[in-house]
Amino acid sequence: MQARIRIAVIALGATVLVLGSALGILAARFDPNAYKSAIVERVREKTHRTLAIGGDIRLAVYPRLGVHLGKASLSELGGTGEFAALDSVRLSFALVPLLLRQEVVIDRIELRGMRATVVRQADGSMNIDDLTAARSKSGEGAGASGNAGAGPARIRFAVDSIRVDNAHLRFDDRKAARIVDIARLNIDSGPIAHGVPSRVALSANIGVDKPALNTVLIFESGFSLDRDTRRVAMTELDANLDLSSRAGIESRAKLKGSIEIDFGKEAIAAALKGKIDDSAVSGKGALRDGMLQLDIDIDRLDMARYLPRAAAPGAVAADTGPVPDQPIDLSSLARLRASGTLQVGELTAGGLRAANVHAVLLADGGKTSIKPLSATLYGGNGIGSLSLDFTDDASKPRMALVQDLRGVSLGALLFDASGKTPLTGRGDVRLDLATQGASTMALREALGGTAALRLRDGVIGGIDLGRLVREAKAAAGVGSGAESTGFSELSATFRIDGGVARSTDLSASTPLLGIGGEGQVDLAHETIDARLSCTVVASPGGQDGPAAASLGGLTVPVALSGPLARMAWQVDVAALSGEAAQKMRAPMPSGAKEKLKDRVTKDRVTKDRVAKDRVAKDRVKDVLGGLFPR
């Protein structure tokens, strides 16, 4: 038996040797270039495209049986314009299936310098529709013939490896008005066969024009192909991405996980985790029927690093007035179709800080909403929603913000948002705002809606109303950052139209005054025009001194006007009754001055206590388009 096996092996080896020698002689004598014109004509008949073969066609026997083709190109349908081209291609064939079963098995493909442009028209048709349809029909016919056993030889793909060097693929998506360039594409894969585990390495430069982004991608992954379901499953994926934009945004990501691609349903599903810059990220995503589904969890995120440098928040010097107008372009979100959730442990946005952020996203049909949008921030919590509507004008979407903030420290919030603290205190703020525009100033000038606040134990910055009422006669001046009015309670509601907030029910209480008022604040140009009525509240037993006792019940009008940074004030003594005016003009009783100084000192101590929660940090602009006054 062993002798027979030995004889069979020797015979098989001799046969292979003889056939190999014969193939070598055939390769030496056979000139495939003589068939160029026939190949070109065959392609024209089958595809109505023009194939140009500029290089020579060569047969090779060692180290693999194969065909080598030099420069070649394929035209668009109809023969005009170049669809694809390459510098060279090499196909290798498995020898044993060819000899024993008359099967042409392509086991290695090498492509160098391949270039192709895929175009999707506005109606959804593509310039490769004819090729994919022809391939589908050809595949059906080949399968039928193969089952019937017809034909001298069958072609079967069982690729042992693919190598692509320096390819350039361009996707001109005219339906989405976007161009994607994949340049310097290099691929090196293992076996590509049904149900066979394999690995692939890929690197490429991927550029997108809208928004203008470029990504350097390097990844390795295991994968398997299911020919029956037309699915590719990638496992143990290890990807590195370096992203940059014309606006100066730079980001780096290192992710691991898995991806499954379903070519039949044109769907992608992924589960990834890793690092994006300084953030630890984990998430799941899917793309089906053009709808992106995302569920993302991030430990901490600083939005400033992902804003264009020209519009990124920066330091704001004191009393410099409104910040310069900045353009805002959100048009890239107009075509977004997505849904999902976002969890962020710690978020910084335009200087504002929040924790435990939870957001639910829905974007489709030119409308994007984030609802609910909740977080804990500045000692309290907030819940609300944010929406963008691009249906009328993608360059100037309508925006709406609803927020209900409870128990927040307003002074710290305003300082982080604008670098200024015109008002401090802890309490509730409710916002229902809408606007539209393509720049920060346009957004502020178009701002409308309502706002309400109710605070306690705070300070109004820029003016000391108690001092004005106690000391002033018919006086006027300009407020300063060194002055303030402490209050125990403050409330107001505002109606906002054209960027101007108007209130008729301002109310505040201080140890010496009951304050009411009305007026308006121009949020776009940061000016104020208001009139306050300050009523002196005499303390029991005259503890605030003879001066305060003598003014008990007196109401003094105070007008405020001008820029918020240098607010002008005027005490309108002329508006008082004769008796009240006489009280204001009367000399201060003996000893009242000292008691008044003591009271002023106490007021300043109160103000200092409330202001201790302010955080000393760089002043920054507001990421939401400068909606907070500066």
TrEMBL record:
Concerning InterPro entries, the annotation shows: AsmA (IPR007844), AsmA-related (IPR052894)
Report biased composition (Basic and acidic residues) as residue ranges.
592-612
- A single Pfam family it belongs to is AsmA
The segments labelled Disordered in the record are: 584-612
> Where does the record place the AsmA domain?
1-209, 342-506
- What PANTHER family would the database entry show? DUF748 DOMAIN-CONTAINING PROTEIN (PTHR30441), PROTEIN ASMA (PTHR30441:SF4)
By what name is this protein known?
AsmA family protein
Protein's organism: Massilia antarctica
